[in-house]
Amino acid sequence: RIPLGGAGWLTPRVDVYYSSGYFIDIDNTAAVKQKPYELINARLAYAPEKASWELYATVSNLTQRAAIGSGVASPANGSQIVTYEIPKSPTSTIAALTGGGARRPVPAPP
What we know:
There is one protein chain. This protein has strands at 2-3, 9-19, 22-23, 33-34, 37-47, 53-60, 68-74, 79-84, 89-97, 103-105. By secondary structure, the protein is mainly beta. A hairpin with a 4-residue loop joins β7 (68-74) and β8. It starts with a strand and ends in a 5-residue tail after the last strand.
């Protein structure tokens, strides 16, 4: 946490995930193998000093790495179908702090 004097706190966070690769089908088909990759996600939160809420922004997959989420290969006709994880995705949220300090998102207004 980074103190902002009487204005509250900034809390930065960076998550790095590395995968050495994996097969996504039962036959370990090379055509639908996920090669090694890394993902970087970031979050920056602001909380006033004596408030019961925080405002935060996140960005998932900063490096925009293509990662296979699921897929199938058909040896009978040689086709492969894959779906990819979500690309770079920014979001922002206001979260209320519950009694134990846990955060829960505040519903968006209608």
